[in-house]
């Protein structure tokens, strides 16, 4: 298979700057993010998920109808390799607090699952960048930060609370494709910018089609 021709992005992102990235949860947002990362030249991608593709996943995600019934990580590995030639690494189970290194993106549904990830990346010198995506209906929030920076840690700690207290306790309860794609695109911007030496604190929020950067 021919390598991707990335000439069009020469002045935007150099794929040689890409670092290993772990995506936890590959539903609607995570599946698009994995495809985005491979498409910009990132070749070291690990994805975690234990769920199968269900029919309601197809309209919002990168998966197709033929993927229904397959494990998400296996279906995604096939899609990414077919599109980009990149062979991603798959972990066929839910994340349960295992050690993490490199850049990490949380694309999970529940706040309690998000807490497990944050507990492992917070003040972890082996994690160079952390991003968190949250979506529901037409709402998107993407937080990108240096997990070892004291101000960033304090700010993100304020964004953590139990699932029982969340206004939208399950991020994946309702959704539409352009919201998932916006979230994945914003997370991709956070990663490529951080890898290229840009500011790591990049926060995005979107509702009803409006995307704006929010500086904490």
How would you concisely characterize the structure shown here?
With 216 residues, the protein is α/β, with parallel strands linked by helices.
Could you characterize what this model shows?
The protein is α/β, with parallel strands linked by helices and 216 residues long. The chain has one domain (18-208): NAD(P)-binding Rossmann-like Domain (Rossmann fold). Helix content is 29%, strand content 20%. The chain has five helices and eight strands. The protein has an eight-stranded mixed sheet with strand order 3-2-1-4-5-6-7-8, with helices on both faces. Helix 1 packs parallel to helix 2 (72-84) and helix 1 (28-39) crosses helix 5. The chain is globular, with a radius of gyration of 16 Å. The protein starts with 20 loop residues before the first strand and ends with a strand. Mean pLDDT is 90; it is low at 167-172.
Helix-strand blueprint:
Elements: E1 21-24, H1 28-39, E2 45-48, H2 72-84, E3 89-91, E4 102-106, H3 111-121, E5 127-136, E6 139-145, H4 150-157, H5 177-195, E7 202-207, E8 210-214
Parallel strand pairs: 1-2, 1-4, 2-3, 4-5
Antiparallel strand pairs: 5-6, 6-7, 7-8
Helix pairs in contact: 1-2, 1-5
Put simply, the count of helices is 5
Helix-strand sequence:
EHEHEEHEEHHEE
Strand content: 15-25%
The CATH topology name reads Rossmann fold
Give the overall pLDDT as a whole number. Answer: 90
What is the strand tally? 8
Radius of gyration, taken over Cα atoms and rounded to an integer in Å: 16 Å
CATH class: Alpha Beta
Key terms for this structure?
single chain; 216 residues; Rossmann fold; eight-stranded mixed beta sheet
């Amino acid at each position: 298979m021919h390598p991707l021709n990335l000439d069009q992005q020469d002045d935007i992102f150099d794929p040689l700057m890409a670092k290993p990235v772990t995506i936890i949860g590959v539903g609607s947002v995570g599946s698009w993010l994995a495809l985005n990362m491979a498409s910009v030249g990132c070749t070291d991608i690990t994805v975690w998920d234990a769920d199968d593709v269900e029919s309601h996943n197809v309209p919002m995600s990168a998966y197709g109808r033929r993927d229904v019934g397959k494990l998400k990580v296996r279906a995604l590995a096939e899609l990414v390799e077919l599109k980009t030639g990149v062979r991603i690494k798959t972990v066929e189970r839910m994340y349960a607090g295992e050690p993490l290194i490199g850049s990490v993106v949380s694309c999970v549904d529940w706040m309690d699952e998000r807490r497990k990830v944050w507990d492992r990346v917070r003040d972890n010198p082996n994690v160079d960048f952390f991003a968190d995506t949250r979506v529901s209906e037409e709402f998107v929030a993407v937080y990108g930060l240096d997990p070892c920076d004291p101000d960033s840690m304090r700010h993100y700690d304020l964004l953590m609370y139990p699932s029982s207290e969340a206004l939208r306790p399950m991020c994946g309860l309702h959704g539409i494709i352009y919201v998932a794609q916006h979230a994945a695109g914003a997370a991709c911007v956070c990663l490529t910018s951080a890898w290229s030496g840009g500011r790591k604190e990049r926060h995005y929020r979107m509702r009803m089609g409006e995307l704006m950067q929010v500086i904490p």
